[in-house]
Request: fold
Amino acid sequence: MIKPAKESVSSNNNRLITLDLLRGWFLIVILVNHLFYFPSGYDFISGRGMLIVSAAEGFFIISGLLIGIIRGGRMNHVPFPVIWKKLWKRGVLLYIWSIGLSFFYILLGWLLYDTPGLKWGLVTPWTNIPDVITQVLSLQYFYGWADFLRMYAVYIFTAPLAVWLLRKGRWYIVILLSALVWLFPQKPVVEIDMIYTWQTLFFGALMVGYYWQNITKFVKTMPKRTINIIAYTCLVITALTIGLSIVSAFIAPSLQGSGWDSISKLTQTIPENVLFHKGDMPLPRLILSFVWFISFFWLFVRYERWLLSKLGWLLLPLGQNSLLVYITQSFVIFNMHLWLRPSMFAVTLEYPLLVESFTIIINFILTTVAIGLVWLAAKYRRFLPFIPR
Reply:
C-alpha cells in the first residue's frame, strides 16, 4: 500500500509558487481564447483555442493537484471530517456562485436579447421560467462565461470520497470510479456533459497531489540523466503536437486545391478527431494533457527565477486568486462582446494589408485592456471581498 510522506508540503513552497505562476499563465490564455479578438498578436500564446490540448485542461489539472496536496497529503494527519467539511464548504460556495452567475447572465441576456454580440445559447426570453430555474439549479443548464464553476463545484463535492479512498490506500478504486463516470455519457459528448469526462483531469491530478511528497522524494533519488530524458521526451512530444495543431488549424485549410490536399485532409480535422475530441476527453487527449502539463511545469520550474522577476507581477496575482479571476473574466468577456466588438471599428481601406494591420492593433488593445481589468481585480482584491479567491 502506498502512503504519502509525513513531511509538510509547506517546506516545498517553491513548487507551489511554480503552480501559481503556471495557473496565472493558463488563466491569461483562457481569457484570450474566450475573448476571441483575433488576429491580435496574442494568437501565438493561445492558438486561438484551436490546439489539440487547451489551457483549460491545465487549469483543471492544477486545481486537482492542489486539492490533493493541500487537502490530501498535507492534511493526512487531520481527522477526515475536518477535510470533508472544508471541501463541502468550498463546494457550496462554488455552487452558489455558479447558479447565481447563470441566473444573472440569463436575466441580463433577456434584457439585451436583441443586442448584437450577446453570447449564444440563451433560452427564449421569459418562457418556461420554472423549467429554466430547475435546470440551472440542477446544473443541467448554464449561461455566461463561468461554466467551469459548475464542473468545479461538483468535483469539490465528490473530492472527499477520493481523499478518503486514498487514505485507505484504495487509489485503484478512484481510477475505476473515474473511468466509469467517463464512460457514462453518450459519445460524442455535448458541452453540458463534459462534467463527466473532464473529471478525469481533476481526479487524476488529485491522486498525484496526494502522493506529491512521495513523488518529489522519488524524483530526487533519480539520476539527473533519467530526469532529463523524461523531461525532454515530454518537451519533444509537446512541441510536435503543438506543431501538428498549428498545421491542422492554420495551414491545412489554405492547402486545399493547391496540390497538398492529402496533407490538408490528414491534418485539417485533428482537433475534432475522435482521438482528440474536446468534449469526449479520449485517452490520447487525456495523456497529451498531462504530457503538455509536465512540459510546461518543467519549464516554469527551470525558469522560475526569470519568470518571477519578469512576469511575477502579472502571473502571481492571477494564479493566487484564480476563482476571483475566473469570475471577473466572465463579466469582462460578456460585456466586451456586447459593447466593444472589433467589427465596430471596421474601416474601409484600399489596401488589405492596412486593414489587417488596423484590425490587429484594435484586437491587441481590446485584449490587453481585458487582461488589465482582470489583473486589477486580482491585484486589488480587497475591493472585491465578496468574490471567492
User: Anything to note?
Assistant: The chain is about 70% helix and 0% strand. The longest helix spans residues 80-111. The chain has one domain: 9-383. Confidence is low (pLDDT under 50) at residues 1-12.
